[in-house]
């Protein structure tokens, strides 16, 4: 199958079938890129971090990147269009009828089920990405002797504290975390 058609179809499917935004889409993206051999898990996790750190919607950023890696500039455009077209069409249709049906018991039940599923998808993403960040070589005794684990856990704990309790701007936290990572990598505290 033509790579551009494949990119469009795969990202169209993601856009049509994934509820809950970019984070809920990560397991679907991971399965797709690994199945097609478009990138490794490590490459995907690296770009998840980059996509989250750059302006714009996470799902659009990552689809554009994957499309670019697989099919160049045209691949980036096609993957992005494939991803955004279904939600665009769906939201136009829903906007037309939602006010009339939002009190319907079936619609309310569906929304409750969707919200719970989205939280589950985001939780699965946290575990999957967390495993790649904290235990990238698998869980063994050598991991617990590596400074990388403790530096990553420390940065995670500080970022979580600053977000939850100090209400620091996420952009500032991203910049500070990158600076700390660069410092530790440059000084040899961690091995990249």
Concise account of the structure shown:
With 192 residues, the chain is mainly α. It has helices at 3-17, 22-36, 41-53, 58-101, 105-134, 147-164, 170-187.
What can you see in these coordinates?
The protein contains seven helices and no strands. By secondary structure, it is mainly α. The protein folds into two domains: 3-134, no CATH class; 135-192, no CATH class. It starts with a helix and ends in a 5-residue tail after the last helix. The model has no long low-confidence stretch (mean pLDDT 86).
Secondary structure elements and pairings:
Blueprint: H1 3-17, H2 22-36, H3 41-53, H4 58-101, H5 105-134, H6 147-164, H7 170-187
Helix pairs in contact: 1-4, 2-4, 2-5, 3-4, 6-7
């Amino acid at each position: 199958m033509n790579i551009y058609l494949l990119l469009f179809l795969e990202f169209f499917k993601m856009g049509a079938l994934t509820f809950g935004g970019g984070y809920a889409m990560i397991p679907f993206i991971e399965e797709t890129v690994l199945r097609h051999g478009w990138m490794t898990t490590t490459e995907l996790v690296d770009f998840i971090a980059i996509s989250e750190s750059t302006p714009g919607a996470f799902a659009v950023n990552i689809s554009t990147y994957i499309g670019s890696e697989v099919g160049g500039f045209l691949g980036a455009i096609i993957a992005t269009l494939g991803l955004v077209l279904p939600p665009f069409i769906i939201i136009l249709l829903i906007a037309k009828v939602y006010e009339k049906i939002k009190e319907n018991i079936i619609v309310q039940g569906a929304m409750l089920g969707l919200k719970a599923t989205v939280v589950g998808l985001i939780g699965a993403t946290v575990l999957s990405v967390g495993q790649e960040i904290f235990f990238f070589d698998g869980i063994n005794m050598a991991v617990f002797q590596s400074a990388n684990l403790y530096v990553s856990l420390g940065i995670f704990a500080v970022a979580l504290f600053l977000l939850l309790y100090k209400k620091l701007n996420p952009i500032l936290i991203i910049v500070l975390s990158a600076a700390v990572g660069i410092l530790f990598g440059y000084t040899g505290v961690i091995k990249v």
